[in-house]
């Protein structure tokens, strides 16, 4: 159960280091240090050793803090619609028709795409719970078979306008969540009241109580669009973040997804309560949502991560670049939110935001890492800068989860089979 990985180049703590070794035991980094010293120890103990040369660079596995994997079926044909039409004529029309078998293949495809792009952990915000746990079980099975580290954010949703496949009572949401928790102790389970408009105040309060009782995280879409704030203010007399606080959901277990339309006081409230924020810059552009002020949140010490959300292209590299460039344009300041900060969001900070012990090449952390082709990095350029501003998913040569290689440049047989199944599912469901 032990293996030594030696890297001529690696990014540790955001800085490039040379000739460094990583001893993996039982899926975690047991020792990180000088390559020669660890190689001598490995030889003495007969530990298998693998070396990556100078044209490769090891980095922490990317953390995808928010995904809806089934939305890969919506890309390409509903791209340029406004949000209301996209939701009603695409999301609500296609996704509820997915069977558990469909879910398995769609998620196998989506998770394989993520792994090929160096994403080793995904927080999957999963809606299809209105008829029980069969679809959720299929999604979990797909994650387990691909090898991706899964944070399963199980949605609670009871809005009258939602499709039946999404909607359930508080009692059903609780009992079904408990059933998944008891069956799948190997995944990171989260409760996820959908949003302030799709989950009732009573459901959000119940979800917050569940989160406290089981010490699990609570994911929630919040302040993604201006209309949400206007509606919350009109119906409840407060803005979204303040309303979450009133409902007892804003605390150190809260993962606020989007948090675009919030004022300065709400930003401070997020920080004071210990809440976390997941920024989805590519999807926010795709849907015309707006720009989250991650610069201010970062300055306040709010743990931040990045998500691929609609999975138009599940690429942490694209998300890092967008996160940095959007802050520069929003603040008209080229020094705003640099490459190192964006890289942190996709790795260590993103892992902290999800409360997952990953995203860093350090002793004790999960041994999740990515091997990049370093030939595209100019000799004079810091590797992190090159990756954020010039990097491509094609640089990913190998993806490792718990020290085990789970993806490479060529798609696996399972990923190829999933693509064929996806084609037939799309032909059946897409209008």
Quick recap:
It contains 16 helices and 16 strands. The protein is of the alpha/beta class and 431 residues long.
Structure description:
Helix content is 41%, strand content 23%. It has 431 residues and is of the alpha/beta class. The protein is built from 16 helices and 16 strands. β1 (2-12) and β2 (15-25) form a beta hairpin. It has 2 domains: 2-60 and 361-407, Urease, subunit C, domain 1, CATH 2.30.40.10; 62-354, Metal-dependent hydrolases (TIM Barrel, Alpha-Beta Barrel), CATH 3.20.20. The protein has an 8-stranded parallel beta sheet with strand order 6-7-8-9-10-11-12-13. A 4-stranded mixed beta sheet has the order 3-2-1-4, covered by helices on one side. The mean pLDDT is 97. α12 (316-330) packs across α15.
CATH superfamily of the largest domain: Metal-dependent hydrolases
The biggest beta sheet is recorded as: 8 strands, parallel
- Count of individual domains: 2
Placed side by side, the strands forming the largest sheet appear as 6-7-8-9-10-11-12-13
Strand content: 15-25%
Helix fraction, binned, reads 40-55%
CATH class annotation of the largest domain: Alpha Beta
Distance between the terminal alpha carbons, to the nearest Å?
49 Å
Q: How many E strands? A: 16
What value does the average pLDDT take? 97
Could you please say which CATH topology of the largest domain applies here? TIM Barrel
Overall spatial form: globular
Supply the helix-strand structural class: alpha/beta
Contiguous uncertain segments of 5+ residues: none
| CATH architectural designation of the largest domain | Alpha-Beta Barrel
Number of helices: 16
The gyration radius over C-alpha positions equals 21 Å
């Amino acid at each position: 159960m032990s293996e030594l990985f030696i890297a001529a180049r690696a990014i540790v703590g955001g800085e490039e280091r040379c000739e460094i070794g990583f001893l993996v035991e039982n899926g975690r980094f047991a020792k990180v240090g000088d390559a020669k010293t660890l190689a001598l120890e490995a030889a003495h103990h007969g530990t298998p050793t693998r070396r990556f040369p100078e044209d490769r660079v090891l980095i922490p596995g990317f953390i995808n803090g928010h995904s809806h994997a089934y939305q890969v079926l919506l890309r390409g044909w509903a791209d340029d619609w406004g949000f209301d039409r996209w939701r009603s004529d695409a999301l609500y029309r296609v996704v509820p028709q997915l069977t558990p078998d469909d879910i398995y293949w769609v998620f196998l495809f989506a998770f394989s795409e993520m792994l090929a792009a160096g994403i080793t952990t995904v927080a999957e915000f999963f809606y299809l719970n209105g008829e029980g746990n069969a679809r959720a079980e299929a999604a979990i099975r797909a994650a387990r078979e691909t090898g991706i580290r899964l944070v399963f954010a199980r949605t609670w949703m009871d809005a009258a306008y939602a499709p039946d496949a999404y909607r359930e009572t508080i009692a059903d949401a609780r009992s079904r969540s408990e059933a998944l928790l008891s069956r799948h102790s190997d995944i990171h389970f989260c409760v996820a009241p959908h949003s302030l408009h799709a989950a009732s105040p009573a459901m959000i309060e119940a979800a917050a109580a569940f989160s406290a009782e089981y010490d699990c995280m609570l994911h929630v879409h919040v302040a993604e669009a201006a209309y949400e704030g206007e509606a919350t203010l009109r119906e409840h007399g407060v803005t979204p973040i303040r309303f979450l606080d009133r409902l007892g959901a804003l605390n150190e277990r809260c993962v606020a997804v989007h948090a675009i339309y919030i004022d300065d006081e709400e930003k401070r409230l997020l920080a004071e309560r210990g809440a976390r924020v997941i920024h989805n810059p590519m999807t926010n552009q795709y849907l015309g949502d707006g720009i989250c002020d991650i610069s201010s949140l970062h300055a306040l010490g709010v743990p931040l991560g990045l998500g691929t959300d609609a999975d138009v292209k599940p690429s942490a590299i694209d998300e890092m670049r967008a996160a940095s460039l959007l802050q520069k344009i929003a603040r008209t300041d080229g020094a705003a939110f640099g490459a190192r900060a964006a890289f942190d969001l996709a790795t260590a900070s993103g892992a902290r935001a999800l409360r997952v012990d990953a995203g860093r090449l350090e002793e004790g952390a999960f041994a999740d890492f990515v091997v990049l082709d370093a030939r595209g990095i100019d000799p004079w350029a810091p590797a992190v800068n090159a990756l954020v501003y010039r990097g491509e998913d094609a640089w990913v040569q190998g993806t490792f989860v718990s020290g085990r290689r789970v993806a490479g440049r060529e798609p696996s047989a399972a990923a190829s089979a999933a693509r064929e199944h996806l084609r037939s599912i799309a032909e059946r469901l897409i209008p």
